Amino acid sequence: MARRPSGAILTWISLDRGSHVSLAQQLKEQLRNAIVSGVLPGGAKLPSSRMLAAEFSISRPTAVLALEGLEAEGFLEMRHGAGTFVAGSVPQHLPRAMAREDAAAGAGAHPQLSEMGARLQDLTIDIEARQARPFLPNTPAYDRFPFALWQKCVNRQTRLGYRSNLGYAEPQGYAPLRKAIANYLALHRSDACHHDQIVITPGAHAGFMLAAMLLTNPGDGILVEDPGPYIARNMFASLGRRIVTAPVDGDGMAFEEILAKDPGIRMVFVMPSRQHPTGTTLALERRLKLLDWAEAHGGWIIEDDYDSEFRYTGRPLPSMHSADRFGRVIYVGTFSKALFPALRVGYLVLPPVLIDMFRNAMALMFRCAPLPSQMTLTEFISEGHFATHLRQMRELYGERRDRFLTVARQVGAGLFHVERPDSGMNALLWLPDGLDDRMIAERAKDAGVHGYALSDYWMRPSARPGLILGFSGVTPQQLEPGLEALARIVADALR
């Protein structure tokens, strides 16, 4: 039979045996203050009178007297057979608690912040939990995820592996996982790296932050694509780096003129395999020119290999890292799109000269990525489940993309234009000039279509309006009703 919870831990209670105030009264007042201040919330279970007596070396009648007094005042409820609980609401005492909260808030209304703290406070960041929603960009097909196979790997690692691996993991990452990733990159990205070059991070954004912090200084320029991911851009800005933008055309990032004019640029953040949100691929000629710039000027390139796993026409170009002869590229990968974001496992592939520095930084800043996730993922890859899942999702997403395009062009004729993506999980939908895409996105969200406004990705003013819509996670039942609702919203906005 499961043992019942013994109640809240009250280590903060201190009874003064030399006081003229009785022990029962002291206990009663400290418990009452804890309830009023919210330390003990409504519904919290208290220890029994027997346990209170033993904990504070008082007689049981003394503990009973304190508890019964609080029950009489309406602070506690004694439930027969269940125990003693803080009352669900004590409205007559709320003003006092609120006054304390207001005073605390007022005292900290103008805290002394660091420069980085002030930059972060001024940023507008989307920190909502990203649950599965129809048309939400970058959402995998959770309806087709092999949960049974994943659970089998979790169960096996729990039974055999976790018990001997409950301490801190190696900061560089679980060695079997690094080997599995190295094998995957060699086979699927034509990137033959050694597993010692790989550092496991708690997601791709941790890798971006490490690279920017370790390889640039405050005030250095970081060149980013425009339009491009605003979260990475804001993160670099919060670190005090100077954000420089380059336009994106049919051949990807157009960086040549900007790099020539700005010698203060120390790093380029680029998505060569599939630029987000435009979906373009960085042309081979530009890749080679960017590598030459990095070597000639001592610059660094962060290669964000954005959802390169899902390509529907032709073979993808190899990663830039695979063509890097000079050791200037930091390759960043993630499993958030191939599997699911909550896994929180990303990785870096580093030039050998940077390995020790990044490993030390991981140890100091993050200690390690979650080891249970690393171990489960290792088995999932090693047993062949990951490769099978990728093949199945590539086929499924290709089918969902084609159906998305067919329906969007039918219901959106004369209202919006949809680009045909050759890869990835999202489609770019262009709106008529003059429409407010943020307004359209908000109205669409209310109708169950959870796309992103393209304006959020632009830094240049007066850029063309559009929406980013995910198709990979949209079921057939959701597709047509959602796009019809979006077409009605756009039509209403044009009236």
From TrEMBL:
Transmembrane segments: none
Keywords: Aminotransferase, DNA-binding, Pyridoxal phosphate, Transcription, Transcription regulation, Transferase
GO molecular function, one term: DNA binding
InterPro entries the record matches: Aminotransferase_I/II_large (IPR004839), HTH_trans_reg/aminotransferase (IPR051446), PyrdxlP-dep_Trfase (IPR015424), PyrdxlP-dep_Trfase_major (IPR015421), Tscrpt_reg_HTH_GntR (IPR000524), WH-like_DNA-bd_sf (IPR036388), WH_DNA-bd_sf (IPR036390)
Source superkingdom: Bacteria
Protein name: Aminotransferase class I/II-fold pyridoxal phosphate-dependent enzyme
UniProt similarity note: In the C-terminal section; belongs to the class-I pyridoxal-phosphate-dependent aminotransferase family.
Keyword Transcription regulation in record: yes
Repressor listed as a keyword: no
UniProt cross-references to Gene3D superfamilies, sorted A to Z: Type I PLP-dependent aspartate aminotransferase-like (Major domain), Winged helix-like DNA-binding domain superfamily/Winged helix DNA-binding domain
